[in-house]
Amino acid sequence: MKIVVLPGDGIGPETMAVTVDVLQAASHRFGLNLDLDHDIAGHESLKRHGATVTPELLAKVKAADGLMLGPMATYDFKDEARGEINPSKYFRKSLDLHANIRPARTYPGMTARLGEFDLVVVRENTEGFYADRNVESGGSEMLITPDVVVSLRRITRQCCERIARSAFELAMTRKKHVTIVHKANVLKIGDGMFIDACQRIGREFPDVAIDDVIVDAMMAHVVRAPQKYDVIVTTNMFGDILSDLTAELSGSLGLGGSLNAGSDYAMGQAAHGSAPDIAGQNIANPISLILSAGMLLGWYGQRNGKQAFIDAAAAIDRTIADAIAAGECTRDVGGSLGTREAGAAFVARLQAA
Ligand code: ATP
Description:
It is built from eleven helices and twelve strands. With 353 residues, the protein is an alpha/beta fold. The chain has two domains: 175 residues, 3-Layer(aba) Sandwich (Isopropylmalate Dehydrogenase); 139 residues, Isopropylmalate Dehydrogenase (3-Layer(aba) Sandwich). The strands form two sheets. A ten-stranded mixed sheet has the order 2-1-3-12-11-4-5-10-8-9, sandwiched between helices. Adenosine-5'-triphosphate binds next to loops.
């Protein structure tokens, strides 16, 4: 399996270095023969190539089997004409990575303030309220007068149906329960179509129970009793916000794994951003990126019927759970280790497994 590795901005280089160590340990332990191809994107690429991402990089990623994308300073990238392209958007759109799978679970050894839970947010990734990806060219946020802005939200039946299918397929491997999160009381046509598409696809999965919750109420419900949920399917921006909440409820934003998957490509990417406030201090939690790398291996294994990759993904999950239970983790999740030291502890566990 060839994986292109892009460390990214802020805490990206620190957390990606540790993630690469874990991937190499998994490769050795499970005989994966991983080929990691290191390249650059984000600020580093802007300096060297005049753009945060280049068409050559995209071609390289398309020829590989997977991509690991570090967190990017997306807020800094404002003008595409000056090469300031949001790499996350660029790959999601160019590779048609329609499903963003974001698990959130509690771990033994950490205080679970809201009780134990284990859920997955399945977020549509290619349209919705995202000005940088829902029109063919230009942006969909318009300055009408200096004081008036109009932002467009695009919802298509095709994208609703394919994200629904991803959610129901995932639900079949879990507790067979899908919750549709929407705002159909206000966005009656767009979210009405989203609910309708989810229910239609749901009929193909008669064993899966379906309910739906309005997004604002969901914020209260998920904080009150996250264990009521298993697979949550929602549109792009609601999923972005909800999955940060569920990751933080599980203990830290630094725990949120994230896989962006399409029919041909997949990209592992931490759920959090570049966290410039803690960059370069060896305190960032690398778990989010490591879990995302594990999800990428699992995706590749499922797709190609390669059990060693599925086993490696499960071993990475177990390693993280065991390390947290033993307190071998960073401060944000109750440990006392730095980023590098936590990584060394994970590698040692994986080697011993
Ligand atoms: P960006 O502009 O790239 O989105 P941000 O700082 O605005 O960056 P996040 O990176 O998501 O947004 O960070 C939100 C908060 O969570 C910050 O206070 C940050 O320090 C903390 N945080 C994010 N990721 C981690 C991590 N891996 N480990 C520890 N804390 C984290």
